[in-house]
């Protein structure tokens, strides 16, 4: 079952420019020059129930614009959107009861009242019964460790405390679909770990579908098997995270730590292998080939030199994405 179905989705914005000089300023009073810029450029996307999908890209790639259209905040210029079987911007009132949204830069909690009062107001907005609220939110409050925060005004919470409360607020009505836009921005490592653990739990327990946009790619690595990579409003990759490396980066890095100092002439010469010395007893081999070449390399090195340790270093997702944008790698 598809929770999100998007076909040829497009969103255009007008960029106005001013004419120079006094006469130009006068003409601008009556007519304006502008260009039409596509923020989202004819993308198609489907997401199944229970998936956790990372939606990533550089600033200005169109991530937030897409999320705003999927949640009904913005109306598309063209194309079709079906989310939870509804049109988000045409069936607004019914639709918002089926989604949860967390924007890292914006709050859905009332600033000057206690957190639990905000929760009670949202409970009424979403028409959640006392039984459902107590049953579901008891688990949420306990898992996110926000019980001691419920009597505090939101303005007295730290950023990490507020974000945990924001996440709880988005789940008061136990929505089947959760949109997270930079949910861990500015948070310390411990808070991030708590949020990631919680998201995994609700995904497993309730089959909650999660669409996550973030610049912290460690969040993507920890939570998402599938990633959608956006560039200039177009999807340039949609697939499994562990396959992105194979598409975007050739080869692996093999780190050899020897028991004694080793010179370059003591290391094997193989096609598609480049060596780099890290220190007197450590060398890095960059291998442009498959696992067979890596195995051959390790075998040849071990035969000639006593080694202390061997590590095969995978390239991080952040490095992969940087390489894609900097070098313009084409992804099939």
UniProtKB/TrEMBL annotation:
Q: ABC transporter domain location, by residue?
A: 24-257
Show the GO MF annotations.
Answer: ATP binding
Gene3D superfamilies per the UniProt record, alphabetical: P-loop containing nucleotide triphosphate hydrolases
Q: Which InterPro entries match?
A: AAA+_ATPase, ABC_transporter-like_ATP-bd, ABC_transporter_ATP-binding, P-loop_NTPase
Protein keywords: ATP-binding, Nucleotide-binding, Transport
* Source organism superkingdom: Bacteria
Q: Does the keyword Signal apply?
A: no
One of its Pfam families is ABC_tran
Q: Which SMART domains match?
A: AAA (SM00382)
> What is this protein's name?
ATP-binding cassette domain-containing protein
Q: Which organism is it from?
A: Mesobacillus maritimus
């Amino acid at each position: 079952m598809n929770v999100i179905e998007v076909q040829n989705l497009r969103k255009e914005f007008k960029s106005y420019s001013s004419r120079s000089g006094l006469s130009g300023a006068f003409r601008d009073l009556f007519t304006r020059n502008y260009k039409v810029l596509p923020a989202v450029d004819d993308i198609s996307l489907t997401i199944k129930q229970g998936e956790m999908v990372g939606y990533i890209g550089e600033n200005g790639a169109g991530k937030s614009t897409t999320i705003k259209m999927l949640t009904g905040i913005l109306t598309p210029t063209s194309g079709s959107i079906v989310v939870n079987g509804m049109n988000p911007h045409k069936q607004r009132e019914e639709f918002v009861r089926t989604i949860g949204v967390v924007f890292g830069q914006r709050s859905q909690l009332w600033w000057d009242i206690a957190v639990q009062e905000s929760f009670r107001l949202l409970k009424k907005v979403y028409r959640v019964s006392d039984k459902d609220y107590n049953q579901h939110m008891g688990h949420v409050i306990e898992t996110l460790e926000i019980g001691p925060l419920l009597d505090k005004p939101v303005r007295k919470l730290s950023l990490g405390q507020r974000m945990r409360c924001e996440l709880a607020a988005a789940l008061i009505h136990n929505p089947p679909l959760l949109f997270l836009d930079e949910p861990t921005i500015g948070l310390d490592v411990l808070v991030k770990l708590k949020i990631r653990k919680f998201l995994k739990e609700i995904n497993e327990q309730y089959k909650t579908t999660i669409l996550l946009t973030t610049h912290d790619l460690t969040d993507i690595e920890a939570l998402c098997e599938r990633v959608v990579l956006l560039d200039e409003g177009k999807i340039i990759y949609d697939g499994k995270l562990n396959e992105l490396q194979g598409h975007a980066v050739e080869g692996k890095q093999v780190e050899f730590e020897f028991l004694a100092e080793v010179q370059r002439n003591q290391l094997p010469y193989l096609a598609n292998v480049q060596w780099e010395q890290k220190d007197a007893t450590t060398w890095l081999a960059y291998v442009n080939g498959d696992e067979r070449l890596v195995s051959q390399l390790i075998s040849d090195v071990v035969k000639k030199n006593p080694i202390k340790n061997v590590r095969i270093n995978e390239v991080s997702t952040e490095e992969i994405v940087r390489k894609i944008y900097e070098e313009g790698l084409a992804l099939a």
